[in-house]
Structure formats: C-alpha cells, structure tokens
C-alpha cells in the first residue's frame, strides 16, 4: 500500500508477517508478564517526514516487531491532544517535548490485519506524569467500578534502532472495543462529542463508527 503523506516507502516483510500474532486474545497482550519491546523500522526519509509533520497525524508505513516477532507492515503516526502534541511542536515543525505518543493501525495497508485481535493500539508518552502510574491506575479503577475503559500495560519503543523509552500501551476505543464489551457492539461510538449543540450534524461529525450509516 501507499504510505500517508508524500507516498509509500515500499517496505516489505518476508515470511509469516504477523499471522501468528493476529488472532491471539488481546487479554494476553495486556497481561504480558514483563515490559515488552516494540521495534518499528521506517524508510529514513519517511521517518524524518513523519517527525517534521507530526502535528498532521498522518500514517506512514513501518515494519513492526513485537518481542522479536514480525508484525508486518503497519501504519504508524504520532498522536495526542492539545497538551501532548500541539504544544510539543513549534512553528517550524520541530518536536520540543522529550517524546510524543504514537498510534499504530494494523489495517492501514492491509484490510483485516490484526495484532492480538486489535485493529489499533496506542503508545502514550506519559510526558506529564513523572510517576508513570496515573493512566494505568485510572483505567484499572474505572474497570473495577464497572465502567468500560481501555486496558493498558507498559511497553518500550524503538524506532529505526533509536530508543524512545517507556510508554503506556493502551487499547484503542474503536469498533473492536465496542464489539468485545456490548452485544451487539454495533452502535454509534462518538469521540469528544461534547453536549454543546442541538444540531445533529455536530454529533455525526464526531462518529468513530457507523460514520456513513448512523441514525
């Protein structure tokens, strides 16, 4: 597939590229007994493009590896909100924070591709949390109270051999998330749709699922 941004890098993976990891239950990932390591390899020019244009949140092709096992070609981009992305990039596109969060999309270049049954997952930089505990404890507390919340763990991340350090590995809230927790899990999922409008179009524009068929 073609990468996001200015074109594909032509990355390829030989052998069983992710098939062994695809259908494993996601519970196993978030109960990993140690801190696992993700390695991502990008064409150097595309990696530089991704960093220079981090605020665009565009996917680039990357070869992923999890604990030494090939994940195949995945979509990799930076992610974040105002405080963890917008304020971390200056007017020239330079990254001014120690590190940025990543989003990994398994199906960006191959429809139906999965990793531990997940379509997407997040690697949060935790730059505003010196303890590195707030996110994991917060999500766990919600789940203990019976509120549906993402599962999380920790992970180390390397890109083109460069160590980016410790991240919070967080389940993405998407259609896979809803299907695992509700029956049926095919309802409308909205992202950041604050109750500030009575216009239906405002809420439709915030749909994460059923974006073309929502009622």
Map the helices and strands.
Layout: H1 19-22, H2 26-30, E1 37-41, H3 44-52, E2 60-66, E3 69-79, E4 101-105, E5 120-124, H4 134-144, E6 152-159, E7 162-171, H5 175-181, H6 200-204
Parallel strand pairs: 1-6
Antiparallel strand pairs: 1-2, 2-3, 3-4, 4-5, 5-7, 6-7
Could you explain how this protein is built, in words?
With 215 residues, the chain is of the alpha+beta class. Helix content is 19%, strand content 24%. The chain has six helices and seven strands; from the N terminus they run ααβαββββαββαα. A seven-stranded mixed β-barrel has the order 1-2-3-4-5-7-6. The longest helix is centred in the middle third of the chain and has 11 residues, at 134-144. Mean pLDDT is 90; it is low at 1-9.
Strand count, sense and barrel status of the largest sheet are: 7 strands, mixed, barrel
- Silhouette: globular
What is the chain-wise order of helices and strands?
A: HHEHEEEEHEEHH
- Indicate the mean pLDDT: 90
In what order do the strands lie side by side in the largest sheet? 1-2-3-4-5-7-6
> What is the strand tally?
7
Keywords:
215 residues, single chain, 7-stranded mixed barrel, alpha+beta, globular, disordered N terminus, 19% helix
How would you briefly describe this protein structure?
The protein is 19% helix and 24% strand.
């Amino acid at each position: 597939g073609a990468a996001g941004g200015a074109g594909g890098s032509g990355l390829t993976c030989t052998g069983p590229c992710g098939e062994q990891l695809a259908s494993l239950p996601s519970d196993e990932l978030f109960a990993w007994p140690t801190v696992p390591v993700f390695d991502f390899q990008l064409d150097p020019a595309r990696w530089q493009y991704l960093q220079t244009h981090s605020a665009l949140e565009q996917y680039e092709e990357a070869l992923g590896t999890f604990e030494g096992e090939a994940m195949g070609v995945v979509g990799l981009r930076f992610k974040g909100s105002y405080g963890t992305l917008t304020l971390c990039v200056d007017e020239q596109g330079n990254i001014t924070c120690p590190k940025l969060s990543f989003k990994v999309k398994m199906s960006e270049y191959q429809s139906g591709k999965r990793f531990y049954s997940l379509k997407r997952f997040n690697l949060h930089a935790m730059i505003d949390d010196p303890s590195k505990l707030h996110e994991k404890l917060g999500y766990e507390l919600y789940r203990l109270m019976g509120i549906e919340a993402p599962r999380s763990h920790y992970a180390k991340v390397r890109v083109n051999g460069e160590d980016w350090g410790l991240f919070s590995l967080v389940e993405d809230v998407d259609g896979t998330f809803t299907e695992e927790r509700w029956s049926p899990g095919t309802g409308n999922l909205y992202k950041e749709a604050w109750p500030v409008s009575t216009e239906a179009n405002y809420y439709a524009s915030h749909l994460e699922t059923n974006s073309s068929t929502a009622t």
